[in-house]
Amino acid sequence: MREIDVYIYGMTVLSTIHKLKGEYPEADTDQEIDQTYVMPGGEAANCAVVLANLGINTVLDGCYLGEETREPIREYLEIRGIDCSKMLYQTGFPGWRDLVLCDGKSRTVFGWFIDYLFGERKLWTDSCEESIRNARCVALDPFFKGTSAQVAALCAEHRTDYVTIDCHWKSEIAQRARALVCSQEFLEREYPNWKIDRLLSKYRSVCRGLVIFTFGSREILFASPGEAPAAFIPYSIEVVDTLAAGDTFRAGVVYAILQGMSDAEVVQFATACAGVACTRFPSVHEPPKLHEIEALMNAR
């Protein structure tokens, strides 16, 4: 019997998020700050917050907690029912942090990610095989070198489905996933000279699971094993904040897979989940509720 709904291995940071009163400014100009929040962020933490709010039992792992981040991260997440016991504390390390500026249409993230990921010290935990074995599904971030690859391998060994993001089609993490979500930002950066339909076909030929390409408010493309590629137009919403849209989308994919939805239904549900999140600031401070997601889906 599986004892955990979802084991989430990946990026958790302490974010300082500023909502600007106007558009992101040009160089050497000014802009006013409207609202500020200091709260956990990152792909893994945001996914955990959304899933916990949907009633999913979650265990969070990955980034080390540091001297400036341990207390605020644990307090914020644990009060929401998220198990942070696998997240270890590293003395002499301030913790994973970032600064985010949002103007409603875009978000700009400043951080120390290159130093943290490629520096001399390893600043993340080893994965927990027991949690992987006991989980119904795993949400996996691919950023942590061999550790992320090990999570994927353990999932395969224990026949635990996982959902991941932004991986090259050559990666075993991509190829073994139950579902893979690639963002427009990733696709444009890593495959600038590829036609999207050809690229989706390439992913489809080597990946065992559902492959989804997202493009913000534009049409979503997806492909299931043995099926022709398909498209889905996102729901019409009034966008307030896009900061965690991708993280919320991935959470929606995980939730829908746990509910046994078809691949087309997975995409529809995840799109609605992200859509609801984009209607407020910060988008996961008040995470989407199931009835809100269903209402957006039914409105179409």
Coarse structural class: alpha/beta
Question: How many helical stretches?
Answer: 11
C-alpha-based Rg, rounded: 18 Å
Adjacency order of strands in the biggest sheet: 4-1-7-8-9-10-11-12
The number of strands is 12
| SSE pattern, N- to C-terminal | EEEHEHEEHHEHEHEHHEEEHHH
Q: What's the helical proportion of residues? A: 25-40%
**What is the annotated CATH architecture?**
3-Layer(aba) Sandwich
Q: Describe the main β-sheet briefly.
A: 8 strands, mixed
Shape: globular
Provide the CATH top-level class.
Alpha Beta
Q: Name the CATH superfamily classification.
A: Ribokinase
The percentage of residues in β strands lies in: 15-25%
Task: Tell me the count of domains.
Answer: 1
Could you give the distance between the termini?
Answer: 38 Å
Weakly predicted, low-confidence segments: none
Could you characterize the architecture of this molecule?
By secondary structure, the chain is of the alpha/beta class. The chain has one domain: Ribokinase (UDP-N-acetylmuramoyl-L-alanine:D-glutamate ligase), CATH 3.40.1190.20. Helices cover 36% and strands 23% of the residues. The chain is built from eleven helices and twelve strands. The chain has an eight-stranded mixed beta sheet with strand order 4-1-7-8-9-10-11-12, with helices on both faces. A hairpin with a 2-residue loop joins strand 10 and strand 11. Helix 1 crosses helix 9, helix 9 packs antiparallel against helix 10 and helix 10 crosses helix 11. It is globular and about 50 Å long. The model has no long low-confidence stretch (mean pLDDT 96).
